[in-house]
């Protein structure tokens, strides 16, 4: 793969991925602030600046390796936004919303991307530039839906584990948090073995449903 091809893939895959990650983490910090905890803001994480959220392995190295070596899985993560539950108005209930804000923010971006595609298809003539733009937007939608679905897996340290905590007894949550390192290793094994490709089923089903709905309404 030459530099031109790598550059093109960075523009098509990595830039949308980076924006989606930053928006995801910003959403966590923003909802935490709404609920009384401004830890993220004080630590400079209530921002869309990629540098504030970057984990060098998860946000840069792993995605770039995927691009350069054309691996079947394009994956990564950002540094978790710090939240102090003691500052929240109702720690158990508010942590649920703080955790859910990340995946919901990616669903919101996916819906916006679908609407942009529908409007572009309705009002712009077909050209190479328009087709390239639509390709990037479709990747943007897929990326956001993958982030939303993956993060809703009900295992710590993912958002889904914290969402599930709202409905579990306190003693069970404590045990799950104490064994977070085990579930982290399980998740890494699922990633490295490619088992998480099964997430493509709900992702692409949702993407096609959204596109059909939006295009059907505007065309």
Topology, please?
Layout: H1 3-34, H2 39-42, H3 50-53, H4 56-68, H5 91-123, H6 128-151, H7 159-165, H8 170-178, H9 180-192, H10 200-218
Helix pairs in contact: 1-4, 1-5, 1-6, 5-6, 5-7, 5-10, 6-10
Explain this structure:
Helix content is 72%, strand content 0%. Helix 1 (3-34) packs antiparallel against helix 4 and helix 5 (91-123) packs across helix 10 (200-218). It contains 10 helices and no strands. The protein has one domain. The longest helix is centred in the middle third of the chain and has 33 residues, at 91-123. By secondary structure, the chain is mostly helical. The radius of gyration is 18 Å and the shape is globular.
Biggest beta sheet attributes: none
Count the E strands: 0
The number of helical segments is 10
N-end to C-end Cα span: 39 Å
Q: Considering DSSP H and I runs of 4 or more, what fraction of the residues is helical?
A: over 70%
């Amino acid at each position: 793969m030459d530099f031109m091809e790598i550059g093109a893939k960075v523009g098509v895959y990595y830039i949308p991925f980076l924006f989606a990650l930053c928006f995801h983490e910003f959403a966590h910090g923003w909802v935490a602030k709404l609920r009384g905890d401004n830890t993220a803001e004080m630590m400079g994480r209530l921002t869309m600046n990629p540098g504030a959220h970057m984990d060098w392995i998860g946000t840069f190295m792993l995605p770039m390796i995927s691009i350069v070596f054309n691996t079947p899985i394009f994956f990564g993560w950002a540094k978790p936004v710090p939240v102090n539950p003691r500052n929240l108005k109702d720690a158990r209930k508010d942590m649920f919303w703080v955790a859910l804000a990340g995946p919901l923010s990616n669903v919101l971006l996916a819906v916006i991307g679908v609407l942009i595609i529908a409007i572009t298809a309705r009002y712009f003539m077909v050209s190479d530039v328009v087709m390239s733009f639509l390709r990037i937007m479709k990747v943007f939608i897929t990326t956001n839906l993958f982030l939303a679905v993956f993060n809703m897996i009900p295992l710590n340290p993912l958002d889904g584990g914290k969402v599930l905590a709202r409905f579990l007894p306190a003693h069970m949550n404590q045990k799950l948090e104490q064994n977070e390192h085990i579930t982290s290793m399980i998740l890494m094994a699922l990633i490295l073995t490619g088992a998480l490709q099964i997430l493509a089923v709900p992702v692409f089903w949702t993407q096609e449903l959204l596109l059909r709905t939006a295009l059907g309404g505007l065309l």
